[in-house]
Amino acid sequence: xxxxxxxxxxxxLRAKARLGGGEKRIEKQHSQGKMTARERIQALLDxxxxxxxxxxxxxxxxxxxxxxxxxxxxxxxxxxGTIDGRLIYVFAQDFTxxxxxxxxxxxxxxxxxxxxxxxxxxxVIGINDSGGARIQEGVNSLAGYSEIFQRNIxxxxxxxxxxxxxxxxxxxxxxxPALTDFVMMVKGNSYMFLTGPKVVKTVIGENVTTEExxxxxxxxxxxxxxxLVVDSEEEGLQMIRKLLSYLPSNNMETAPExxxxxxxxxxxDYLNSIIPxxxxxxxxxKEVISSVVDNGEFLEILPQxxxxxxxxxxxxxxxxxxxxxxxxxxxxxVLDINASRKGARFVRFCDAFNIPLVTLVDVPGxxxxxxxxxxxVITHGAKLxxxxxxxxxxxVTVTLRKSYGGSHIVMSCxxxxxxxxxxxxxxxxxxxxxxGAVEVLYAKExxxxxxxxxxxxxxxxxxxxxxxxxxxxxxAARYGYIDDVIEPRNTRYRVIKALQTxxxxxxxxxxxxxxxxxx
Length: 519
Ligand code: HXC
Known about the structure:
eight-stranded mixed β-sheet, 20 helices, 2-enoyl-CoA Hydratase, Chain A, domain 1
């Protein structure tokens, strides 16, 4: 063979590999509105930056006549490239080859990418589209999954891991995405569940469709498994690029700072009148967020789940920040099990990757009742408390209105090592609201008053007294629990100044094997 022949052979092999499971199966993939694995990677990474690895890998299985059929790349495309010029490792399962099912060799390819990402300190993006364990390979496939899971676990908190679910993801296979930092699903074309509809019917007699059991909307609203949901793969791949722009490449770095063309001293006069006079009336916290962050840009995480708390990424003065805020328009912004879990996971992610936290507080308390107590709101609420308490990143908190009792503490109070805790003049920082306090403190006195009119007057007088004493920011400020009471319209400037000031913060938790947070 001449050298030219050898080069020709190489090019032919490459072309063959790029065809995956063949043109017919690619057509089927396209007809379902799905891209192929290589198309997805091309759309995700900077143009021309993808370097494929292990293109010539094939499976080694001989069961069921498999030794007579080999596809180059073995159902997963792996390699590296860049996003906004930064190194990224990627793997994308190729459904056109044995339904993207996981073989021993496919697992080895994915593990190689995970190992390299750890060594190089670069994020990993996994695009999942697979029928699960390759049935013909039996336990070798299970072992392959386990190898991946182990690496996901070790990479957690070291490099960002993002999972896009662009097709089926079932059985134990869901645990790799579940171990990563962010799970994205595409509406209508992806699903995730541990046991499929047929097994559900057999075991518990429940009739349920694939979409009802594990579609994108289910995981975006009910389970909270999918932090990001998109209408199309193209939209999803662009969103991953955006998400990465807020993140550092690894836990030893800080997120890239971008030039800020939005003046940091921008004043928002309307914030001085956003809080309604009636304490029971709501206002939209998202308006506050978009008016204080750079250019109003906010990438919300889990927007449809536990809407009483808002979590997401933004920039302030060009710095990447994680925003956590209570939402008065939904369940009055009360904290409950789901909101606590959502908030805690987000806070822990930001802390693991050196992203400062900006917390906007308007919280009436924890949701009372048996449903919450039986569901373990004590443990779940403690997760958020723990997350804020262990976080060593810069923490700036602004209390806009209510901040009562346990929920005051949990929402990044001063004693949880808050760096700068501000309050608006409308803040009410107290053990509880006036209604509850008067009920407890003056029950006997009020009951003793037999004239109903006088009774109302007595209640009002006691509430006024309580409100004057406690339902303001100055009582907390008097003790230094609030660093300053600020004009709402200056919030952007004050928060950015605070973030700039504490950006050199150094704080370490005591050495330990690992913590034992209330899971
Ligand atoms: C080997 C598989 C496969 C698998 C699909 N294929 N799943 N090959 N192992 N697990 C092959 C099919 O034989 C077919 O080959 C091609 O992929 C496309 O599959 P279709 O069924 O034609 O596609 P579609 O109709 O879109 O259905 C997709 C599907 C279905 C819903 C995912 O294929 C399916 O139910 N697959 C099995 C799912 C499953 O039970 N997996 C094991 C779960 S247990 P041809 O040659 O026709 O193109 C598990 C344990 C993991 O994963 C544990 C981890 C700890």
